[in-house]
């Protein structure tokens, strides 16, 4: 007949210690979920990539026109604008004001404007001399990304964005190169491996305590 020993006092002490260690992170996580539900996080992230249409050495040998306008230093600018928050940005959040993409070079034309996902509407763009004005007549949905491709004319265009969005954090994102993406991937993987190793060590310590 096999006798099964009752858990020792050391077992219950170790179990209580592990439970105490897990209780605080669990409480913090539940509190964080409640905070996000009550206080929505409004966040706009955007980026701009500027590409010259011609090489510097070719400026004197080429003539580029758009319609009847001769361009002296044309660039193509691709702007991504995303709702990175956890709620839709409604029209009222913009206080009746447009989102404006500004350029130190003249805005010549809007070449393309798209939305991801495609089922959601693009904010209509209106071109001015140094501004692309986006009408906030429809919501910018959670997770939606708008892309605008514009043609500008002028040396070294500097692109910026301004908006009168209430309680909304607006952040410019730097576009990563392929090498930077790879480095970020390995960094995240090392963090995951480190966290897994820490969990394994905690599990091993618990087993050793139980065996004592």
Automatic annotation (TrEMBL):
**TM helices/strands, residue ranges:** 12-35, 192-210
Any idea which UniProt keywords this protein has? Membrane, Transmembrane, Transmembrane helix
| Superkingdom per UniProt | Bacteria
* Name the UniProt record assigns to this protein: Uncharacterized protein
- Species name: Streptomyces sp. R41
Q: What is the lineage of its organism?
A: Bacteria, Bacillati, Actinomycetota, Actinomycetes, Kitasatosporales
């Amino acid at each position: 007949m096999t006798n099964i020993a009752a858990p020792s006092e050391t077992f219950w002490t170790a179990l209580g210690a592990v439970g105490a260690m897990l209780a605080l992170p669990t409480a913090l996580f539940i509190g964080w979920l409640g905070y996000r539900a009550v206080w929505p996080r409004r966040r706009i992230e955007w980026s701009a990539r500027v590409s010259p249409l011609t090489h510097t050495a070719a400026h004197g040998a080429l003539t580029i026109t758009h319609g009847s306008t001769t361009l002296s230093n044309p660039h193509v600018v691709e702007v991504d604008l995303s709702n990175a928050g956890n709620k839709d940005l409604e029209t009222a959040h913009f206080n009746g004001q447009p989102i404006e993409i500004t350029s130190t070079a003249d805005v010549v034309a809007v070449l393309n404007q798209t939305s991801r996902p495609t089922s959601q509407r693009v904010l209509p763009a209106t071109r001015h001399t140094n501004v692309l004005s986006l009408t906030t007549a429809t919501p910018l949905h959670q997770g939606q990304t708008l892309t605008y491709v514009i043609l500008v004319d002028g040396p070294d265009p500097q692109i910026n964005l301004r908006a009168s969005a209430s309680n909304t954090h607006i952040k410019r994102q730097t576009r990563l190169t392929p090498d930077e993406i790879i480095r970020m991937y390995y960094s995240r993987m090392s963090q995951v491996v480190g966290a897994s190793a820490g969990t394994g060590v905690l599990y091993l310590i618990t087993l050793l305590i139980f065996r004592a």
